[in-house]
Amino acid sequence: MTKIFRITTEINRSSIGRTTEQIGKLILDEGWESYIAWGRTDGESASKKVKIGNKTSIYTHVLLTRLFDMHGYGSYFATKKLVKKMEQIKPDIVHLHDIHGYYINIEVLFEYLKKSGIPVVWTHHDNWSFTGHCASVLNGCDKWKSQCHDCPLISHYPKCWFWDGSKRNYKLKKRLFTSLDKLYNVGVSEWTCNELRESFLNKYPVERIYNGVDTEVFKPYDTAGKEVREKYGLGNGLLLTAVATAWTENKGIKDFYALRKVLDKKYTLVFVGAPQNLIDQLPQGIIGVRRTDSMGELAKIYSASSIVMNLSLSESFGKTTVEGLSCGVPGIVNDCSASPELVDEKTGVVVHTGDVKSVLNAIDTIMSWDRIATAMACRNRATELFNIHNNWPKYIELYKRVLRENNYL
Fold it and tell me: Which of 63, 160, 324, 372 is most exposed, with minimal Cβ within 10 Å?
């Protein structure tokens, strides 16, 4: 029986964890065996689960990262144990998702993958695989195209306090990640694919499989407005909603603060996924909502909004924009990374990064559109391009192609 073995940080939690679980169900529908190896957060799964490491191995890995910028060097024994489990299972394909996150030793893993000759599918959800440090390349840095060094983002995830190891890390990643004979790269956006083609991974094939949303969950809720406003105390203003799992500078928080200062009082900015310490210090006119794991609840918040705002400085995809579209809500995105791919002239506006006046003009533009026609256009774009029921089966097609090319079928 065909066995697909996937490695990820979380199971059925957050965007990548849910993606991994949803693809696993399609694997099972094929009559194959589905395994998910996870390192950080457990969740319910229809697949067979394999735990990687423990709290001690994770904390040690974090310490190596913080002190010496050695992300991917820890978790040695945890990864050795994982390799032994994989040797017992004998998977036909190994599918990598986010292998950073303080739980995998990349040298142990890739030496095994090279030795075993197992075909590897790698979905790149960010830039970490081809940089010397960062997961999100910012400020036009292109050192990763030749040789990372003197990283300007050393204090960003995966954060290091003292040592810049970007030059060393880049060389190690390049040696390990280009050592495989059978590697199939997947980019979650056209922008991600283009970045891969300019990186040291360009010797391998790259194909785009857009990230997606469940359009049966993320759908317009016509009566959600009153319910959501009362539940979260959002008031009666027009809601401009932004969603993030980590409210960092990379998510454009400074631009949101600058926008609030010049924004008409009829609008309320809503930060969804905000931690309590951020909520406690938000200025008037910005309301924070704690993270919810209920996708239906999130869809109602989108549906109550006038615009979904994404002023992130770097997005490999930008799922929050697409979730909003699926709920019939237009988006405003920055003109950087993958964000401009997500909207067209009927479903959103692309603004100049860091230009608050451009954002104000975009808000006025969208608010002048016919609301019903816009909602239909947004919903149609989401269901046609970003629907998981269309996109996730493309992974099954890729698996079958890989199996045929390697004489497994």
Answer: 372
